[in-house]
Amino acid sequence: MLTRVVWAKTPLPGVGKFFELMRGFGKTVHFVSNNSLRTKENYESLFQAAGIKDGFNNLTLPSIAIAEYLKSVNFNKAVYCVACPETIAVLESHGFKCKKGPEMGTSYYGDYVEYLTDDEEIGAVVFDSDYKVNLPKMYKALTYLKRSEVLFINGATDRYVTLKLGSLALGVGVFSDIVSEESKRQPIVLGKPGKAFGELAMKRAGVTDASRVLFIGDMIEQDVGLGRAAGFKTLLVLTNTTKEEMMSHATLKPDYYVDSLGSLVPILVEHLRI
User: Fold this and answer.
1) Does the annotation list 35 as a binding residue?
2) Could you tell me which of 48, 45, 53, 81 has the C-alpha nearest to residue 66?
3) Among 35, 80, 149, 185, which residue carries the largest CB count within 10 Å?
4) How far apart are CA 250 and CA 246, in angstroms?
């Protein structure tokens, strides 16, 4: 919910004041993002620029969710990661052994037979924001997933990403979808719009009643979809979606919508004066 809700390249007007007012009203504020690609330092600088205190400490990412899930099931094998370096670093910081690669394959298809060899040490396959995904990695993932006991975990599921305003490009979710289809297995989704991801974020925020959560985002499929799956109320910020697109969506409608969070600040300030 962060990009185009809290910031673009720089903080969006009024967002820091919005969250300050929310906390002033006694609300718990917790942030969720599908973007495991950013470093902790980058997130902290963005939160600071927006005037948001303790932002990173109150942030749930797929990388964090995956690590916490593996700990919850007492996972003790190696993880094959089709994931960005930041996700791998998070998993390793929690004590998990990670295997990855290769980053390139050969031009001759016959060489790819080496990627069909199983590795009994692998106990989980994790997909999360690997923009260097390739055919060798997919071969290896499919090979390991032939064993039913190997966990299949997906972080960011975005099939499309906004690389420039008004234009969508293919996201890495298309590749994990191919692996899911070919392996005939459904992953544990620990990114938006997965229900388990929403529930983990709620747990980390110390909230127990899903009906008391207002989930704010700018994407219908990912943000409103997560809210619907987890039983949250939803607020769609129209920084990435037009009102016409929102109204014409076949299955998902937010409970509320607004042009920007900053546009709510005068209303909230006035409420304080009453």
Assistant:
1) yes
2) 81
3) 80
4) 9
218 is in an annotated binding site: yes
Per-residue pLDDT in tens (0 to 9) along the chain, 274 residues: 678 899 988 999 999 999 999 999 999 999 999 999 999 999 999 999 999 999 999 999 999 999 999 999 999 999 999 999 999 999 999 999 999 999 999 999 999 999 999 999 999 999 999 999 999 999 999 999 999 999 999 999 888 887 776 677 888 999 999 999 999 999 999 999 999 999 999 999 999 999 999 999 999 999 999 999 999 999 999 988 889 999 999 999 999 999 999 999 999 998 877 6
H or E element that contains 109: none
Instruction: Please give the model's pTM, rounded to 2 decimal places.
Output: 0.91
Residue 186, classified by CB atoms within 10 Å of its CB into exposed (0-12), middle (13-18) or buried (19+), is exposed
Residue 167 in marked binding region: no
Distance of alpha carbon 262 from alpha carbon 164, whole angstroms: 22
> Is 42 known to sit in a ligand binding site?
no
Is residue 212 left, alpha or beta, with left meaning phi > 0 and alpha meaning psi from -120 to 50?
alpha
Both tokens assigned to 248: 């014409």
DSSP-derived pairing of the beta strands 98-100 and 214-217: unpaired
